Amino acid sequence: MFERIERGWRLAMTAFGVLRTDKKLLVFPLLSSIAMVIVCASFLLPLVASDTVRHLFDNNGQNATNAQKIGFFLLAFAFYFCNYFVIVFFNSALVACALMRFSGEEPTLGDGFRASMNRLPQIIAWALVSATVGIILRVIESTSERVGQFIAALLGTAWSIMTYFVVPVLVVEKVGPIEAVKRSCSVLRKTWGEKLVSGIGVGLIMFVLFVVAMVPAFLGAVIGGPALIAGIIITVALVLLLALVSSAVNTIIIAALYQYAAQDRVPQQFDADTLKGAFSSK
């Protein structure tokens, strides 16, 4: 177990090194976050200003008509679709650039965007499937306050695990959503142990960096006055940056594990023995 954690830590540090070498990869999670904020605002603001939300949430929706409930779920489906499309589009661009970097190429932002545009049909199809699953889970969750929430959480976790490698599959293999899930599960069977420990490695690194990011706010609170405001602003900026870094690093790890497991190729920046050990039964 400790050997696996050590390998996961090395994988995480290598992924951080890739990002440090190619800092422009952070642009993709940044643009994804901005686009998601725009999507949320465009859907939520009109809803909040209408009577639909009030009827749906007063007395657990007992005051809402069937037409309002159907309309709400249709809007929720559209919301899920737009969000999933944004996430997968920019993650696909990042994966494409990471795979190019693994092969010794010098990817540009344009290369990433072209890769996503070339896979637009697959991305749209996957966003539709993801939105459908999201709505089904939401319906299950709403059927019962406790049992429904538990079942929805369980199914949601299983779905997230099964689709862990869907984005690199879409980027490299250009398959449909059903085949993408099958391929993701196939790769996952080889990589589940390293997926877990690399996640722990990234989590530990991000926790240390988060503690460091809290220092300006702490010092500002000790000093007081304008220093408090400045410290909070610096800390918030650092936390947002860490969120972008964490997203990019996790995507880089997914791309590296996929390339080794699915294509039997060792990414140039990664240690072959570490990757080989990642797929051993020890």
Looking at this protein, list some descriptive labels.
single chain; mainly alpha; 83% helix
Notes on the protein architecture:
With 282 residues, the protein is an all-alpha fold. The protein has one domain (14-278). Helices cover 83% and strands 0% of the residues. The chain has helices at 2-21, 27-48, 51-57, 66-102, 109-118, 120-143, 147-162, 166-173, 177-213, 215-223, 226-263, 272-278. α1 packs across α9. The protein is globular and about 60 Å long. It starts with a helix and ends with a helix.
Briefly, what is this?
The protein has 282 residues and is an all-alpha fold. Helix content is 83%, strand content 0%.
How would you summarize the topology of this molecule?
Blueprint: H1 2-21, H2 27-48, H3 51-57, H4 66-102, H5 109-118, H6 120-143, H7 147-162, H8 166-173, H9 177-213, H10 215-223, H11 226-263, H12 272-278
Average pLDDT reading? 82
Helical proportion, percent range: over 70%
The tally of structural domains comes to 1
N to C succession of SSEs: HHHHHHHHHHHH
Question: Approximately what portion of the residues adopt beta-strand conformation?
Answer: under 5%
Biggest beta sheet summary: none
Gyration radius, rounded: 21 Å
The low-pLDDT segments are: none
